Amino acid sequence: MGGGLLIITLIFYNVSIGCNLVDHAKELAKQRGCKAVTLDSGLPRTGAHGFYEHYGFEKSCYGFELMI
């Protein structure tokens, strides 16, 4: 089951709003029978990576793209 989009901007990474948004997304996913929450984050976004890792997300794959 897929389908949602959540964007947390840089100003929210170090305040509870970012955690509250992810908490809410996680709760909605549970209610819909999802087994996991996954996300994509660009390589240069190290601040975002730190936020997600601190929250408990684990790196699970590499993403690739081919510009044409």
TrEMBL record:
SUPFAM superfamilies (alphabetical): Acyl-CoA N-acyltransferases (Nat)
Report the Gene3D superfamilies cross-referenced here: 3.40.630.30
* Residues covered by the N-acetyltransferase domain: 17-57
Q: Which domain of life is it from?
A: Bacteria
Q: Mind telling me what this protein is named? A: GNAT family N-acetyltransferase
**Organism lineage:** Bacteria, Bacillati, Bacillota, Clostridia, Lachnospirales
